[in-house]
Amino acid sequence: MVAEDAILGFLQSQDEIADSHEFAAGLGIDHTELENVIKRLNGFEIIDAQDFKKDNYLLTEEGKLYAVEGSPEVNFFLAVPPEGISLANLKITLDPKVFSIGSSWSKKNNWIEIAKGSVTRKVDAVEDKVKDLLKGIEDGKFVDGNDVAELLKRKLIVKQTWKGYKLRKGPKYVSKRKKAATDLTREHLQKGDWKDLEFKEYNLNAQGQPIQIGYLQPLLEVREEIQNIFLQMGFEEMPTNNFVESSFWNFDALFQPQQHPARDSHDTFFLKAPATTRDLPEDYVERVKRVHEVGGYGSKGYGYDWKRDEADKNLLRTHTTAVSTRMLYMLAQKKPFMPKRYYSIDRVFRNEAVDRTHLAEFHQIEGVICDHGLTLGDLIGVLEDFFARLGMTKLRFKPAYNPYTEPSMEIFSYHDGLNKWVEIGNSGMFRPEMLLPMGLPEDVNVIAWGLSLERPTMILYGIDNIRDLFGPKVDFNVIKNGPICRLGLQ
Length: 490
Ligand code: FB9
Fold this sequence. Notes:
Number of domains: 3
Shape: elongated
Distance between the termini: 59 Å
Number of helices: 19
Helix content: 25-40%
Strand order of the largest sheet: 9-12-13-17-16-15-14
Structural class: alpha+beta
Bound molecules: ligand FB9
Strand content: 15-25%
CATH topology of the largest domain: BirA Bifunctional Protein, domain 2
CATH class of the largest domain: Alpha Beta
């Protein structure tokens, strides 16, 4: 307020402030600070500020030295005694720069003569004009063009173009501004000074304060959306909190033969420790062994020697269907049989080559319905309902193969954004060789399907490299500034 009061106070008795730089110097403040006050007062038309360009000169480091210690030519002249001195002696007594610059300028000024190695004076006394000019510039005094040109040439000053302001009273001039109040307070009302308060204009375009909130990782946003879809469709979540699984629950119980390539270490992460599982339901294991070896339940089996130690091997689950299998087995132990809808969304691990869109792990989404007399039509119907809630209404189904489902179907959806059919998942009806050894009633069928969480998330968020979505290189701004995830129709 000091600068503001100084400007308004000065203009009360004077017509104008001719030069804001001089005014700032008089106040002992930086011109930039004064400029902000000028712009504010000018904006409210309290003053009228006319800007102008002003050439100004600043002393260089060498110029400042001369302004204090005098010019080299004067110091050189003063070092020459009236009786003269040898050049060699003079060189020893003077600073090398004073000697070299001083000798040439005092010769140029015709102050000394150098002959046969000795220096004599040609005048009795000299004035240090350079020092006086430099000190004058430092004090902001006017210096005429020729002198300035010489100082510029000797690099004792540099030119600066400053923007200055000429200030006069504005149409809304007041000698002292009332403090702009932002709020009408109880004190104002009690004191009654609200009457002569000025209130700050409301800036209705001002941005609200950014709120510091947490942000869900895009995968978790999409996971939440899909969980809601399952819950709205009456599905219960399965307990998937075990990444480590036995080969038995991951493969054997699904009637996947022990020679299947998917069970090779090129596709599966087997554990060194603990290498084998401890506890399996032995009677059930017997039935699984038999159905692999000789079949049963109308199946002829695979006809190979099933190995228990192969089934005992621990691994990182390659699909969440291992969990679905456990759930179906436990459901089969409950009498009487109760139909169920289960879902899961969790990480699975595959020992495969990684690339821009694939890591050695991904999040599998799986839906399972276990009920009397389910048909492929039921599966197609529930898929159309599920994917419609994700905004995908044009579906196509293509016959496929899974070791544990028959029939199986790949699911495709026409993606308007990408203008093409996109594979969106896989599905099927679990085989009797999987369900009947569990003890499920003969007329009970199970339909199931799966997809990944990363694929829809990357498409919805326009992310083309999986490392921008998952892993140590994720850019938090992508998470912070990502769009709110709203999947199709729900
Ligand atoms: O997610 C996949 N694609 C997809 C899904 C949604 C989507 O939404 C976009 C907004 C529009 C886009 C794409 N897929 C499954 C299909 C392909 O991406 C495929 O190339 C990759 N698949 C993974 C397997 O990769 C090794 C996705 C993953 C997958 C595949 C099959 C299952 C689960 C995940 C399954 C199953 C299943 C089958 C029968 C019974 C039980 C489970």
